Amino acid sequence: MPVATVSTKTVRHQLETCPGGWVDLRKMSYGEHLESRELAARMSASRQQKGDSEVTMTMGVKASFSYNFARSIVDHNLTDEEGTKLNLSTMQDLQKLDPAVALEIERVIDELNDTGREEDLVPLPSGSAQRSSEEPSTTPK
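Predicted structure:
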């Protein structure tokens, strides 16, 4: 039977934006991916006294990226200016991180988790979508 669970193997990525720096990453499970998406956009509804309803949408981008870093980064060799190893699972240390380094790590995490983007999808005749790099299905309907 084909294995459909996420691999526990890690991948080491040498950072271009921080020469000599590296991160060991693991792929997130689908459940973790869903949790990250939920953190990114939360919606709440409340009722006003006059019977009007109000819907508020809160963007939790910081929470989502913090979650992704905490779940995906298994180990690294990144430090602050005093030589103290950064704890990349805390917002306190993420805020210290050089933006170029953070964006590179974010990009590699996205690639590892194959989160894809809508522009990478092409419509199929059946109305569903697939990655543009894949061959269209030839299975008869």
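Summary: The chain has one domain: 10-114.
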